């Protein structure tokens, strides 16, 4: 690597849009490192970051409001390219002497944009050409305000019927504004527009690749931990698995993973984790069979929050016991990823619009006195996955649906019992294997079975059955904050339901959950 991976970097000032993380992902996909900061970070920090370009995100506010979020004025004098998107464009207009007005009603959805004037940003980028020879772009718009007058020095770059100034540029200062969202996939030329801004206008290379990320991270971890011992709570989930693979590559035997089988895992999960990490990769893994302890703790507990707490606390207790046995360990590795970092920064400043109410089981034991190694801190989930594949983890493992920390504990409604967990594991395995067999697994974001501790009458041959009910759950979502139930084909659901009822004793009825989030949640508890 001739240049450091972080040499070419972009700063994204976040004005609170749902799309900000998409912007960052587009930038990263283009091979350029970027970080997201709240719009009001001090100019000093902006300057120190030494970006090659700045992107001002969209946001939910109106630039016409009294106390409207603004970028620090000095940002416009940094002499580096700036791209404002939606609210970001409006704030540029307002701050640099243009006029913004309210449209009366919001515009939301597809739009045809006519590219006007020849600017470096949109030159030769178009989806179609009109009979008069105008280049047209198919884009996604979502706004309530619009720019009514260009600031001095700007020229018109794009327009639609409802937003005559849908794009503007001051090419002498390399400041650009787009009213539409190039980061969403509905904007067909979005990738081309980002690439133009990043590579040609800002002059960034494309060094941010999985191979380079791995090389850099391995070097960093080696420098950070030296010859010390490191421990890692391996859950079988994507993030901790990728950390294990990375650290194994970086420090080999200095890594000890602790895998706690709490009896609330998916079908044969413990064996798969051991097979993959201990047998195939030669990672040192201590498997702790703690099913009995967890079930004992959960006996008689049926409130979801109390169950979560019981599971989380016992996990920490066991993890601490095992960690104490690794006398020399000085470091605790964690699978923290970039969205967690952004979220906790938002939470600590009180600015996050959405704060997750649950965290992975295994929060930090306070008295462990271990320092943290967090090799995925800069990565988005899709980057973590690509790194995992590049490190040789099987695709099925890396692209698995998320699994909640408390596991089947929150998928068995009410009190958890071993026989319920065993039955649920079998049903879940049938559903998941059939999704894979029908190529539907990757089309849904998360799928699983929920065990309902109620009984229902059924009939087999000439016998009456009186057994439990399970519900299939499958959702499609981008951010897991909202979700729609997956419209799986009826024939498929029929096949899964038959298999579950024919093959598993103790289940006499299968239902399909058709609740969206909101108002439902993805998990049932
Ligand atoms: P909900 O049920 O809140 O779930 O719509 C959203 C996403 O979070 C996962 N989830 C959890 N993950 N610990 C976790 O690590 C938890 O306690 C927990 N509860 C829900 C859920 O599986 C979904 O992906």
Could you characterize what this model shows?
By secondary structure, this protein is α/β, with parallel strands linked by helices. The protein has 14 helices and 19 strands. Strands 2-1-3-4-10-9-8-5-7-6 form a ten-stranded mixed β-sheet, sandwiched between helices. It has a five-stranded parallel β-sheet with strand order 13-12-11-14-15, sandwiched between helices. Strand 1, helix 1 (20-29) and strand 2 (33-38) form a beta-alpha-beta unit. Xanthosine-5'-monophosphate binds next to loops. Residues 308, 358, 360, 402, 404-406, 446, 480, 517, 521-523 line the site of xanthosine-5'-monophosphate.
Range of strand content: 15-25%
Major beta-sheet overview: 10 strands, mixed
Count helical runs: 14
Could you tell me which ligands this complex binds, including any ions or cofactors? xanthosine-5'-monophosphate
Structural class comes to alpha/beta
Secondary structure tally: strands: 19
The radius of gyration over CA amounts to 26 Å
Average pLDDT metric? 92
Question: How are the SSEs ordered, and which strands pair?
Answer:
Blueprint (H helix, E strand, L loop, with lengths): L8 E6 L5 H10 L3 E6 L4 H7 L3 E4 L25 E4 L1 H9 L3 E17 L12 E2 L5 E15 L5 E5 L7 E4 L4 E4 L11 H12 L8 H16 L3 E5 L4 H14 L3 E7 L7 H12 L3 E6 L1 H8 L5 H22 L3 E5 L4 H12 L21 E3 L7 H10 L4 H4 L19 H20 L8 E15 L2 E14 L7 E2 L4 H14 L3 E6 L13
Parallel strand pairs: 1-2, 1-3, 3-4, 4-10, 11-12, 11-14, 12-13, 14-15, 17-19
Antiparallel strand pairs: 5-7, 5-8, 6-7, 8-9, 9-10, 16-17, 17-18
Bound molecules: xanthosine-5'-monophosphate.
